[in-house]
C-alpha cells in the first residue's frame, strides 16, 4: 500500500513541477490569458456546459479579447464586432477555416477526404445556391413544400396536435432535402408524389436520431451505447443517400450534380461519397428548420407581431394582383417585399443563431483591432468569434437584448433598419447569423426564401394555435452553442387544422 501511495505522490509532484515550469504564461503583447484551475483541462467543463454563459463571464472579467485554455488547447476569443472583419477576411494561409472543419467532419460524419481542396469545393458549389440559380431552387422548394404540407393536410380535417419543433424541422428538412438532393417527381404536375413523401420521411427520422448525438460526437463524448446508435443512424443514412441512387433521381439541383462531379474528379470512393452526402445534408438542412421553428414560436407568443406579418402579407399579395388564398407560386418580387417579416426573422435569428466562427492560427501573427489595439497570436492556437454574445446579446447595441421585439429591425418610417450603434459608433455587424467574410453562408438567400415560403404556405393551408397558450417558452439546449441555430430543450405542442 505504502509504495503505491509514494508512487502516486511522486507522479503528482512531477506533474505539478512540469506544469509550474512549462505552463504557458502571458507575454506583454498578448491578450489576457485565463488557464482555469484544472491543469490541462482548463475551462473545458464550463465551456462545454454553457458556452454563452462562460464567455459572457470571461468578457466581464477580461474585456472583449482573451485567451482561455480548453482541454489542452489555447483559444483566443474575440468579442468586438467592429474587429470581426480583421478575422473573417484574413487569408487562409494565416487564419485557416478548413483544418478544424476537417477534424469535425471526421468526428461527426466519418468523412475523411485526404488531399481534398475545400476552397475549390466552395468555389464550385457557391454559384449553385445564389443569383441566377436561385429561381429554380425557389420553384422546386415551393413544389416540395406543397407536396409535404399537402400530405399533412390530408390528415388534418380536425384539429391535430404535434410538437411545433418536430413539425417544422420535419417539413423544412424534407422539402429542403428533396430540393437539393433530388426528387422522384418531374415537378410538372400537381399530383402528390408518395415516393418522395415516404423516402423523405425516412431520411428525416434517421437524420434526427443522428442530429441528437452530433454535439457529443463533436466533443468526443459519446458513450458506447450512443456510438452504436450514431453508427446505425449513419449507416442507414448512407444507404438512403447512396451516391448511385442520387444520380438516378428524376429532378436534381445543379448543386448536387456539381458536387458529385467534384467528388468524382477528386477520386473519392463511392462509399466516402455517400458519407459526404450525409455531412452535406446536415450542413445545408440543419439550420433552416430550427430557424423557422423559432420564428413561428415568437409569432405565436406575440399576437401583435403575428397580426403585423399577416397584414403585410395580405397587402403584398394584393399589390401584386394576387391573393394569399390562391397561391400557385411566389415570385422573388413578393419574397423581397416583406419588410415586417424580415424584421421578425432577423430578430428571431438574433436571439437563436449561435455559431462559433473558428479559425486555426497557422503562424505567429498580430491582430489589429478596430480601436487600434494590437495583439500577438501564437501559431497553433485557435481563434474564435462568438457573435451571439456580441453583437447579438450586447445590451449596448440592442436594448433589452433578451427580449423579442418584432420591430427591432424596422425604422420608424417602416423601412428595414440596418444601422445600430455602440457608444455612439456605428456597429459593422449588428447581428451575424450567417457568419461573414469569405466563409459567409452561401445558402442564405435560399434559406430565407425557404423559410418565407414555408410560413406563407402554413398560413395558406392551416389554422394553427398553441394547444395550451399558457405553456412557457422552452429553454435552449445549451450543448448546441457554437453549432448554428439553437434547438429548444423540449418541444412545445401546437395544433393545426386545414382551412379548406
Ligand atoms: C437559417 C438558416 C441558416 C443559417 C443560420 C446558416 C448559417 C451559416 C453560417 C454561420 C455559416 C458560416 C460558418 C463559418 O464561417 O464558420 C454557414 C456556412 C454555410 N452555409 Fe449556411 N446557414 C443556413 C442555411 C443554409 C442553407 C439552407 C444552405 C444550403 C442550401 C447553407 C449552406 C451553407 C454553406 C455551403 C456554407 C459554407 C460556406 C463557405 O464556407 O464558403 N446554409 N451557414
Automatic annotation (TrEMBL):
Coiled-coil ranges from the UniProt annotation: none
| A single GO BP | prostaglandin biosynthetic process
EC id: 4.2.1.152, 5.3.99.4
User: Could you say which cofactors this protein requires?
Assistant: heme
Per its record, the protein catalyses:
a hydroperoxyeicosatetraenoate = an oxoeicosatetraenoate + H2O; prostaglandin H2 = prostaglandin I2
- What InterPro entries does its record include? Cyt_P450 (IPR001128), Cyt_P450_CYP7A1-type (IPR024204), Cyt_P450_E_grp-IV (IPR002403), Cyt_P450_sf (IPR036396)
The Gene Ontology CC terms held by the record are: endoplasmic reticulum membrane
Q: Which SUPFAM superfamilies match?
A: Cytochrome P450
What's a Pfam family this protein contains? p450
> For this protein, what is any one GO molecular function term?
monooxygenase activity
Q: Where does this protein reside within or beyond the cell?
A: Endoplasmic reticulum membrane
UniProt KW keywords: Endoplasmic reticulum, Fatty acid biosynthesis, Fatty acid metabolism, Heme, Iron, Isomerase, Lipid biosynthesis, Lipid metabolism, Lyase, Membrane, Metal-binding, Prostaglandin biosynthesis, Prostaglandin metabolism, Transmembrane, Transmembrane helix
| Role according to the record | Catalyzes the biosynthesis and metabolism of eicosanoids. Catalyzes the isomerization of prostaglandin H2 to prostacyclin (= prostaglandin I2), a potent mediator of vasodilation and inhibitor of platelet aggregation. Additionally, displays dehydratase activity, toward hydroperoxyeicosatetraenoates (HPETEs), especially toward (15S)-hydroperoxy-(5Z,8Z,11Z,13E)-eicosatetraenoate (15(S)-HPETE).
Q: Belongs to which family?
A: Belongs to the cytochrome P450 family.
Q: What is this protein identified as?
A: Prostacyclin synthase
Organism of derivation: Pelobates cultripes
Amino acid at each position: 500500500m505504502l509504495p503505491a501511495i509514494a508512487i502516486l505522490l511522486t507522479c503528482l509532484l512531477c506533474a505539478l513541477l512540469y506544469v509550474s515550469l512549462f505552463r504557458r504564461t502571458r507575454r506583454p503583447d498578448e491578450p489576457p490569458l485565463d488557464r482555469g484551475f484544472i491543469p490541462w483541462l482548463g475551462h473545458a467543463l464550463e465551456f462545454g456546459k454553457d458556452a454563452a454563459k462562460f464567455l459572457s463571464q470571461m468578457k466581464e472579467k477580461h474585456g472583449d479579447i482573451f485567451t482561455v485554455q480548453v482541454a489542452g488547447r489555447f483559444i483566443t476569443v474575440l468579442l468586438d464586432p467592429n474587429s470581426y472583419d480583421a478575422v473573417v477576411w484574413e487569408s487562409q494561409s494565416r487564419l485557416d477555416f478548413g483544418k478544424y472543419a476537417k477534424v469535425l467532419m471526421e468526428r461527426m460524419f466519418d468523412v475523411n477526404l485526404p488531399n481534398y481542396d475545400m476552397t475549390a469545393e466552395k468555389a464550385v458549389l457557391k454559384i449553385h445556391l445564389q443569383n441566377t440559380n436561385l429561381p429554380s431552387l425557389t420553384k422546386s422548394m415551393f413544389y416540395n413544400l406543397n407536396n409535404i404540407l399537402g400530405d399533412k393536410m390530408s390528415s388534418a380535417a380536425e384539429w391535430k396536435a404535434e410538437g411545433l419543433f418536430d413539425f417544422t424541422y420535419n417539413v423544412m428538412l424534407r422539402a429542403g432535402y428533396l430540393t437539393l438532393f433530388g426528387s422522384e417527381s418531374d415537378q410538372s404536375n400537381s399530383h402528390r408524389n408518395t415516393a418522395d413523401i415516404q423516402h423523405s420521411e425516412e431520411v428525416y427520422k434517421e437524420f434526427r436520431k443522428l442530429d441528437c448525438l452530433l454535439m457529443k460526437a463533436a466533443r468526443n463524448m459519446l458513450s458506447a451505447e450512443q456510438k452504436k446508435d450514431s453508427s446505425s443512424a449513419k449507416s442507414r443514412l448512407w444507404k438512403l443517400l447512396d451516391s448511385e441512387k442520387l444520380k438516378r433521381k428524376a429532378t436534381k439541383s445543379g448543386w448536387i450534380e456539381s458536387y458529385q462531379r467534384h467528388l468524382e474528379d477528386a477520386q473519392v470512393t463511392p462509399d466516402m461519397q455517400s458519407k459526404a452526402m450525409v455531412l452535406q445534408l446536415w450542413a445545408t438542412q440543419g439550420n433552416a428548420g430550427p430557424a423557422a421553428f423559432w420564428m413561428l414560436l415568437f409569432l405565436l407568443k406575440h399576437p401583435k407581431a403575428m397580426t403585423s406579418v399577416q397584414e403585410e402579407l395580405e397587402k403584398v399579395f394584393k399589390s401584386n394582383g394576387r391573393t394569399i388564398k390562391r397561391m400557385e407560386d411566389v415570385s422573388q418580387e413578393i419574397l423581397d417585399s416583406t419588410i415586417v417579416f424580415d424584421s421578425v426573422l432577423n430578430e428571431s435569428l438574433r436571439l437563436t443563431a449561435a455559431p462559433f466562427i473558428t479559425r486555426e492560427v497557422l503562424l505567429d501573427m498580430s491582430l489589429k483591432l478596430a480601436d487600434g489595439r494590437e495583439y500577438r497570436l501564437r501559431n497553433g492556437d485557435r481563434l474564435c468569434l462568438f457573435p451571439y454574445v456580441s453583437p447579438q446579446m450586447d445590451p449596448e447595441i440592442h436594448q433589452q437584448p433578451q427580449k423579442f421585439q418584432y420591430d427591432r429591425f424596422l425604422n420608424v418610417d417602416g423601412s428595414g433598419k440596418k444601422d445600430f450603434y455602440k457608444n455612439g459608433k456605428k456597429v459593422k455587424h449588428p447581428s451575424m447569423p450567417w457568419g461573414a467574410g469569405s466563409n459567409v453562408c452561401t445558402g442564405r438567400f435560399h434559406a430565407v426564401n425557404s423559410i418565407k415560403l414555408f410560413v406563407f404556405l402554413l398560413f395558406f393551408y392551416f389554422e394553427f394555435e398553441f394547444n395550451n397558450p399558457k405553456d412557457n417558452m422552452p429553454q435552449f439546449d445549451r450543448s448546441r452553442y457554437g453549432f448554428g441555430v439553437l434547438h429548444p430543450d423540449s418541444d412545445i405542442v401546437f395544433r393545426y387544422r386545414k382551412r379548406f
